[in-house]
Amino acid sequence: MALQLAVSSVILALRPAPDDGPLTLWLPLVRRIREPYEGSWALPGGPLGEACGLEQAARDALSSTTGLDPAYLEQLYAFGGLDRSLAGGAGGAGGDDGADQADRVVSIVYWALVQAEEDQAAVRAHNVEWFPASALPDLAFDHTQVIDYALARLRAKIGYSPIAHAFLPAEFTLAELRAVHEAVLGRELDPANFRRQALATGAVEPTGHRLQGTRHRPPSLYRYRAESVATSPTPPPRSAS
Amino acid sequence: MALQLAVSSVILALRPAPDDGPLTLWLPLVRRIREPYEGSWALPGGPLGEACGLEQAARDALSSTTGLDPAYLEQLYAFGGLDRSLAGGAGGAGGDDGADQADRVVSIVYWALVQAEEDQAAVRAHNVEWFPASALPDLAFDHTQVIDYALARLRAKIGYSPIAHAFLPAEFTLAELRAVHEAVLGRELDPANFRRQALATGAVEPTGHRLQGTRHRPPSLYRYRAESVATSPTPPPRSAS
Q: Which residues form the NrtR DNA-binding winged helix domain (chains A, B) (predicted)?
C-alpha cells in the first residue's frame, strides 16, 4: 500500500519578539537531515508507529522537541491531498520519515500551546530551533500552509473560547489577558472595549487580589472560571483518541 | 504495514420525528454485508483509495449513500486509538472494508449537513436506511461514539457560527431559525430571548419581505449575510485538503 500515515505538530509559545519586542508567537522547527528537503526546516513529527496512538505520537514529538508538556493539545486536521508525497513538492513529516519517496503521505496534524520561558525554549534537542511565526524560514513540503492553518484556527478560537488560558498563569491582570489576545491576533485592541467584552463572556472572574508591586493603584487579578476552561476543547471519545 | 486508513461520514439532515413529531436530526447508516459485525449498521465509508483525496472520499460516500450534495461538509476528527481494529470491538469503516481483520484502522471522519426531504431521504442505495439520531440501532465498531462526537460538535458550533444556514432555505422566519436550533440542541428555546440573541450576532438580516400566506400578520423573512456564511468553516489549505 502506497499510503503512508504521519503525525506532525504545530507547537506554539508566546514570547517577546526579538530585541525585546512585544509578545509574539514562536514555534519550534526541526532541520531535516535527509532528502527530500535535506537542510530545510520542517514541523516536528514522523511516521505513525503501529503501536502508538495518534495523540501519543503528537505528545512524543512535543516532548522530544521541546522537553515541555502542552498546556493545550488538539488535533488540527488530517492533510491528505493527492499531491502530498515525500518525493513531490508537498506532504510528509518533519524530522525523520523513513517512507519510500514515491508514497503518498496523509499527515494528521496536532497543534499545541506551551508556556515556554526563553531559557526553556533554547535548543532542547539536536536540530531544533525556535522561530517567530511572523518570520519563518522556507519550510519543507506544505508545512508553511499547515502552520498558516494552525494560526488561523488559534485566531478564530481565541474569539469564542477561553484558549488564552493556556498562555497565562493561574492569576493575571486584564492587561496581561489583552496582551495575549493582541499577540495572537497580531493587532492592538482597545483596552476599554476589551475589558468590557472579556468580562461579558463570564469566562473570567476577579480573584479579589491585586497585583503585588510598587504601583500606587495595582491592577486587580483575574482567573478563568474552572467550568469555562474544563469544557474546552470538546473532548473526543476517550477510547478512540 | 498493519495500519489501515479509512474515511467515514456522519451525514445529518433535519426532518420531522416519526409520526409527524417535531423537527429532529436523522442520519443514514449502511448495513454491513460481511464480518465483523455482519448485519449491523455502520457509518457510510470505506478504505481510502490511493487515488482519492480525503474530502473526495467523503463526498463519494455521501453521494452513493444519499444521492445528495452536502450543504456543509467538514472534517470531524481522525480516530486512531490502539484498540481500533477490524477484528476487535472498535474501529473500521462501514459498508465495505477489505482490510485484514488484524489490522489497526485509523479512520478520518467527516460530518456533513444535507437538506433531505422525506422522499429524498428514502432508501437511495441498497442497504441504506435513515434513523433518528435519538433512536439509533446498535452500531458496528465505535461508531456510536463517533456519532456522539459529531453531534457534540454540531451542538457546540451552532452556538457560535452560522451553521444553521445549511438546514434553511435562502429566506426564513426567525421561528424557522429557532426550530433548527431547537432540533439541534434537543430543547425548547425562549422565543423572545432567541430573537434578541439571533439578531445581536449580526449574522442574519431582514430581507424586507414577509412570509406569503393567509395570516393576518405574516412574519418577516430573514437571510444570512453573505459574509457571515462565507467564513464558515475556516477553509483548510486548498492544496492539502
A: 167-223
